[in-house]
Amino acid sequence: MSNKLQKYFPLIRTRESIFCNIQNTPHLWSIFQTWTSEQQNEFLDFCSGAKGVKLLYDGFFKEILNPEYTPERVSDFLSTLLNKKVSIIAVLPADSTRIADESSLLIMDIVVQLEDGTIANIEVQKIGYMFPGERSACYSADLLLRQYKRVRDTQKKKFSYQDIKTVYTIVLFEKSPHEFHDFSNTYIHKFQQISNTGLELELLQKYIFIPLDIFLETKQTIDNKLDGWLTLFASDDPQKIVELITKYPEFKSIYEKVYEMCMNLEDIMALFSKELQELDRNTVQYMIDEQQEVINEQKKCIEENERILAEQATSLAEKDKFLAEKDKFLAEKDKFLAEKDKSLAEKDKEIERLKQLLEQKEKS
User: Fold this and answer.
1) What is the pLDDT of residues 315-341, one digit of tens each?
2) Among 221, 246, 252, 271, which residue's beta carbon has the most beta carbons within 10 A?
3) Taking the model in full, what pTM does it have?
4) Beta bridge partners of 207
């Protein structure tokens, strides 16, 4: 596999050469030894071309798809995804309201304005957040409000709501949230607001979610340019990389840039170390989120059980009250019957006395 990629990228060095260089440089060797054997092999594999480079590594992705340095690449990706020709005219400030811990889970969060005024927010997440729909809706609303304020301040008295353009929220997941795995054969999900009557209004907010892990599992061939972009982002399979650059040669320059970066071992090892740290942090944060969801579900279950127990307690109290009233009724009934029996006994006794008197009278 190494020779296959070296044929296309002569810059790639052999595994032995890279390892020897690291071993003979004390501070690099010191860093290398802090990694697990699996991490060491992963690093040597992508630097030597045994595997392709994971372009979703933060440092690589920001280098190859930064709209300030390479707007044409972002424009081409968006044109392909949205199925219309677009060009970036401005890179807008990222959302300053993001929680710090959330930012650590993002590989990239860029906001660009297209030539027709449309706003596109592109996020790449190594590990998908919990509640992806609710979260994306909040940030889409924030982007829309920021656009409204910006246009209103610019247009002043000439402002019209027609000046507000569509906001796209585009999220790519390396490891997608569990909701997406219920649709295991679908790797592009598009959302927009529609009415139940067929009435059409431009409500401005649109969403595209792309689970790259599901793309890799379901798509075996590169059939179009969008498949090419998603393969670039998601696959480190050398065979797929060769297929991609053969079918779409324009992607070759991206890999060439990456392998140029790999020539500088010091920088690339620092990048890889940072990536490992972020991955650990992301995993911990994801586990915390998952655990919180479990806790929330357990809390709901406990609250539901407490509600059921309270209803049962009320039911038992009412039953006890009913039984107490029944016992009282039975006691009163028993008393009534006892008094009735006593009265009958006295009457029987009186009858017997009268009989005796009658008999005595007849004898006399």
Assistant:
1) 888 888 888 888 888 888 888 888 888
2) 271
3) 0.72
4) 169, 191
